[in-house]
UniProtKB/TrEMBL annotation:
Residue intervals passing through the bilayer: 95-118, 124-141, 263-288
Name of this protein: Fatty acid desaturase domain-containing protein
Keywords: Membrane, Transmembrane, Transmembrane helix
Protein origin, superkingdom: Bacteria
């Protein structure tokens, strides 16, 4: 697939936009049903699970719980299958995008104000200061990365229709204040390179280069995989390269007018915080999360974002292979039902404890916004992030040139899948390549 870059900066990744709903719009199904396509072929498009997973639709075990929007936010998975919509139907109105930005910046600002209060108040003990600061770091990291992901969708043309307004909001509210790349540069390396079907998980993919820069390679020993997973972003070289990369792409590489805008913004901001004597607050509660903590937050999700270094077998169709390079990364585990008495109560306490201790921190720290549905973003990059979990669920189990969908529950399951590929060359964790081979055999018989 070739992604063309128009002069207006619009992404024309047509091939990736063909996970359209029209092919099966009137087919009501459940996730595990066997579907009948137009050729009366029996093809099973039901969701696939890895051998490390639960083998069931975990989200369905949450269906009796109150407050379903909360569980959708936390798990990343939408609870029911509605009619699919076309990407254009998911686009936001400008006020909705502005609301999203206001929400993010308001949370950042409130965090800075609370940070100032905690930092300067001598009545607050050191331990409380540290705990509060860690929490504020997570919130600021969550929202600055949230802005980056909002920029990502806006850059795909998946936020609002008005391109001029999209570029303006992208530049001044989602790029310059978080020292992100310029609109055009990001479009080139992300929509152009990362989303190119034949580039994904190759050396031409900038995201795979990022893995290589952190020491990962195909066939690496397992102990190195786990060691780099934990320590690579803390290496002084990685920290320096990250800061240097941002500096280059903000003040050296962009065109003159971009450099002037970025220089003017940052010198004004630094002047204000210096004159108001708040430079210490600004450094601790904004720059440290932005430059240091983001690195690790982003790293944890990046490692499991794709099946790095996977090579397409000749007998696996291109689009099926491409979609097998990513999967739904949901957070949670089956709700314990059916056990009564003390044992049942103990299971439920354990389940709730894992929600509080594992899922909520991982969601806030690393898997914000649309990241659990990154697989569906590669199938249909013009779906807006407000709708992506709903649209992903709508297409689950339906016929698609990308093959069946796949999903994991919990960070560890995804890590084991990536480990199997990177260290041992076992790429078909969900049996999707085998599924494609079987379809080919059926067609030939
Ligand atoms: Zn994208
Ligand atoms: Zn990706």
């Amino acid at each position: 697939m070739v992604c063309k870059l128009t002069s207006s900066g619009l992404n024309l990744c047509n091939c990736l936009n063909t996970e359209d709903s029209s092919q099966s719009k009137n087919t009501k199904i459940d996730n595990r049903s066997i579907l009948i396509n137009k050729n009366v072929d029996l093809i099973d498009y039901s969701t696939r699970y890895s051998r490390y997973g639960w083998g069931i639709d975990v989200r369905a075990t949450y269906s009796h719980l109150p407050c379903q929007p909360f569980w959708t936010w936390l798990t990343g998975k939408y609870p029911k299958q509605l009619e699919p919509r076309r990407p254009i139907e998911t686009i936001l109105a400008p006020w909705q995008l502005i609301l999203q930005l206001t929400w993010s910046w308001a949370l950042i600002l409130i965090s800075l104000l609370i940070g100032a209060f905690v930092y300067k108040n001598s009545d607050i003990g050191l331990l409380i200061k540290i705990i509060c600061s860690l929490f504020l770091f997570v919130i600021v990291t969550n929202r600055t990365r949230g802005l980056l992901h909002t920029f990502h969708y806006t850059n795909h043309g998946a936020s609002i229709k008005n391109l001029r307004l999209a570029k303006f909001l992208g530049k001044w509210f989602m790029s310059i204040p978080i020292m992100h790349l310029t609109w055009d540069e990001y479009h080139k390396i992300h929509a152009g390179d990362h989303h190119a079907t034949t580039y994904l998980c190759t050396d031409a993919d900038p995201d795979q280069k990022f893995m290589k820069d952190h020491g990962f390679y195909s066939g690496m020993p397992e102990y190195l995989f786990w060691r780099y997973l934990v320590f690579a972003p803390f290496h002084p070289k990685a920290i320096w390269e990250h800061i240097y990369f941002r500096f280059l792409h903000n003040f050296i590489i962009p065109n003159r007018s971009e450099i002037i805008s970025r220089f003017a913004f940052w010198t004004s901001l630094l002047t204000i915080v210096t004159l108001t004597n708040t430079i210490d607050i600004f450094v601790i509660y904004y720059l440290i999360p932005l430059f240091l903590i983001t690195q690790y937050s982003s790293w944890l999700q990046h490692i499991t974002e794709h099946l790095w270094f996977a090579v397409r077998p000749n007998d696996v169709p291109l689009f099926v292979f491409m979609s097998s390079l990513t999967w739904g990364r949901f957070l949670g585990r089956p709700y314990p039902k059916g056990t009564n008495g003390i044992k049942g109560i103990a299971y439920k306490i354990q389940w709730w404890a894992k929600i509080l201790i594992i899922d909520i921190p991982i969601k806030l720290f690393s898997f914000m916004q649309d990241l659990p549905s990154h697989d569906y973003h590669h199938r249909s990059p013009r779906i807006n992030f407000w709708s992506i979990s709903r649209e992903r669920a709508a297409m689950e189990g339906r016929p698609s040139k990308y093959g069946p969908m796949t999903e994991t529950w919990g960070l560890l399951e995804s890590l084991l899948i990536v480990r199997d590929q990177v260290c041992y060359g076992k790429g078909d964790a969900f049996g999707v390549w085998e599924w494609a081979r079987n379809q080919e055999k059926r067609r030939n018989n």
